[in-house]
User: Fold this.
Amino acid sequence: MSQPTLSPESVNSTMDRLASIAHETIDRVTPAANHAEHDARGAATRAADRAKVLQDQAAAAVEDRVRKTRAYAQSNPLVTAGIAFAVGALLSTLIRR
Assistant:
């Protein structure tokens, strides 16, 4: 069987049709892609805002615990010294092993 010969005009015509179809497809898909990008950016912004709120809450909780611990240590110095001694002895034992 012999291969059909293609004329340059038919090749150009086919290429033009394919290019036109590609452009039409891109034109049809672009609004949906833009909408999806907008939604994704909105979700990312909301997630970042929520993360910031959680970070602020965690920092406030840590500050509150530190403040309460300091107040307890200042009002109960002997208990604090005993706890520090016990922790030091425990760590010393663990390190030696």
Observations:
- The helical segments are 8-75, 77-96.
- The chain has two helices and no strands.
- The CA atoms of residues 50 and 56 lie 10 Å apart.
